[in-house]
Amino acid sequence: MRKTALDDDASIYQKMEEETEKQKWQRMDKVQRRQYFLDYYLLKIVVISLLAALILYLAWTVVKPKVETVLYVAVVDEQLGEEEKQELIEELNLLYQADGKRKQVVVDDMFYLQEDALDKLQIFMYNHQIDIIIADEDAYRALAGYGYFQSMDELLDEEAVSRYGKKYVSAAGYKEAEEVSFEDRETGQGGMLPYGIDLSGSVRFSGVKNYLEKPVLSIAAGAPNQENAVRFLDYIMEDE
Predict the structure, then answer these.
(1) Whole-prediction pTM value?
(2) How many angstroms separate the CA atoms of 172 and 147, rounded?
(3) Strands, DSSP E only, in the chain?
(4) Residue 189 to residues 104, 107, 153, 172, 192, Cα–Cα distance (Å)
């Protein structure tokens, strides 16, 4: 039987299909090889690399050691001395037997009320991340009105009350009433309670702060490390 042009084309097509990747690569020049790589391999490599990175990240998230925060101190409207703050953290790590890696103390002075500090505080308070809040007296009274603090009388034992009672700073708290909504300004309409302690006489805190004229220490409502927060009060007032 005589071969037709169609038979010839089919034969050529079959030979091209049987050509290996190695043979294709050998017959290409540099420009063709570069374009072939971009067209057929680059996207696959990128996708595989991203998938591998995602798998490694998820695996690390599962197996990595979890960091336990034994004390979180939020300092409002202040820029602490960097070296002094680090020394404070190191001393607190020793106090709480924290290694700074798996167990840590956080002293966060990135809370500025003129920026987004109130939003940040609300989020942290909602997630029960903050133990101590230190702020100037005016800011302290405003935050007390939002119900951010616990009364010192409810937290401290008789000995501590006798020791720090003269340093109490009382403020109007948050009014709990079903008939009054948050939008109706029940903030600051609660009873006057000692939510804070004056740190003006604290030698230790004076050595760290720069701007707060009358710093007031409060223990956050829902503090996850309440006992450690009370121990911090003893520590920061020790050299008064």
Answers:
(1) 0.70
(2) 9
(3) 68-76, 103-111, 132-136, 168-172, 192-198, 215-219
(4) 37, 31, 19, 6, 9
